[in-house]
Amino acid sequence: MPELPDVAVYIESLEARLVGHRLERILLKNPFLLRTAEPPLQSCEGHVVTKLRRLGKRIAIGFDNDVWLVIHLMIAGRLHWYAPDHRGKVRGPLLQLDFDNGVLTLTEAGTKRRAALHVVAGEAQLEEHDRGGLEVLGVDPKVFRERMSERNHTLKRALTDPTILSGIGNAYSDEILHRAGLSPMIQTKQLDDDEWRRLYDAVQDVLTEWIERLRTEATRGFPEKVTAFRKEMAVHGKFGEPCPVCGTAVQRIRYAENETNYCPRCQTGGKLLADRALSRLLKDDWPRTIDALENAKRRT
Fold it and tell me: pTM for this one?
């Protein structure tokens, strides 16, 4: 799912192309994408884009009649931009927005339709799509700590809860926790002052670094390669690969359709975190440390 760095760069790329330009026509190719009835989707046609806004992981496009298109890409939704002189292949879209200077489309990979489009009128309706999470970049460390510790959650859950922090998901939370050297399963109430400082610094550094990295990529064109799995990441999506800091094999916890990746030496003191499915299956045979796991691999 596109997270804060990806959405921030999407917003910047869209601002450069859409602000001041008129939406000539809207083509809704899949009716299940649209989740609202009023105001009608066509109320944006003939109007000029005046602003864009990020609401957590959502992209809001505002028009001169105070109507907004709010797009939530979810896991597999992606945006594509085609200049007027484009002659190549165009991916089959769920939504097509024809502007006076090009075409913006929304596609979604796979068969599950999770991406969503809402049409809202005015700031009040727009704010209903804001989950209330704290905008973390540049926030005061004390405010960050207070918000994160309001409820006692694991760090992984607290970082990815959109009502606590805005825009951080599965991928960047893994990277943040690895950078901070903290277990994803430690409770927020258990952190000491030094750990809070490391966590805050990691949030600022990781998100800023990735925004700059993605921004540099976007100078070559509209951001097309938006993915949660990037080769430059330290641990996310790197199960079984060596940690770039200590060389230990990256481990994972799988749950539902997500997984948490971590380094057991850098983050958990050599302990393996229980995988809800595998550890229950193996019971007493579950290796509880990275050394036990490596010994078991050598024996087999």
Answer: 0.90
